Amino acid sequence: MGEQIFGCWVWILVAATHVANPLLQGWVMYVSLTSFLISLMFLLSYLIGFYKRYESWRVLDSLYHGTTSILYMSAAVLQAHATIVSETNDLNNYFINTAASFFAFVTTLVYILHAFSIYYH
């Protein structure tokens, strides 16, 4: 649940800035939005009770969160680069990009922790 909240913040903050590097921040938007939607589907599946029916639920959940953490790490690094580049353009965009970078790294950490906690639980 935490990864969805932080990922939503990344998505909102990147959307609120003037996009200086469309390719870099496009990847950040794609990863954050796609991860948010798939994580929401996992949450709904969990609430419905699919995890009780299938033995491989933990493996699937751990693989998804592990893969997403790798994708989010790449997005966080690209967002940090976009933040460094935006420093010279506009101070307001710089602060928003800084917050987006922070939340991207926090989201990456939460996905990693979720993947390991499911796997070792």
UniProtKB/TrEMBL annotation:
<keyword id="KW-1133">Transmembrane helix</keyword>
<feature type="domain" description="MARVEL">
    <location>
        <begin position="1"/>
        <end position="121"/>
    </location>
</feature>
<dbReference type="InterPro" id="IPR050578">
    <property type="entry name" value="MARVEL-CKLF_proteins"/>
</dbReference>
<feature type="transmembrane region" description="Helical">
    <location>
        <begin position="30"/>
        <end position="51"/>
    </location>
</feature>
<protein>
    <submittedName>
        <fullName>MAL-like protein</fullName>
    </submittedName>
</protein>
<feature type="transmembrane region" description="Helical">
    <location>
        <begin position="63"/>
        <end position="82"/>
    </location>
</feature>
<dbReference type="InterPro" id="IPR008253">
    <property type="entry name" value="Marvel"/>
</dbReference>
<keyword id="KW-0472">Membrane</keyword>
<feature type="transmembrane region" description="Helical">
    <location>
        <begin position="94"/>
        <end position="120"/>
    </location>
</feature>
<keyword id="KW-0812">Transmembrane</keyword>
<dbReference type="Pfam" id="PF01284">
    <property type="entry name" value="MARVEL"/>
</dbReference>
<dbReference type="InterPro" id="IPR013295">
    <property type="entry name" value="MAL"/>
</dbReference>
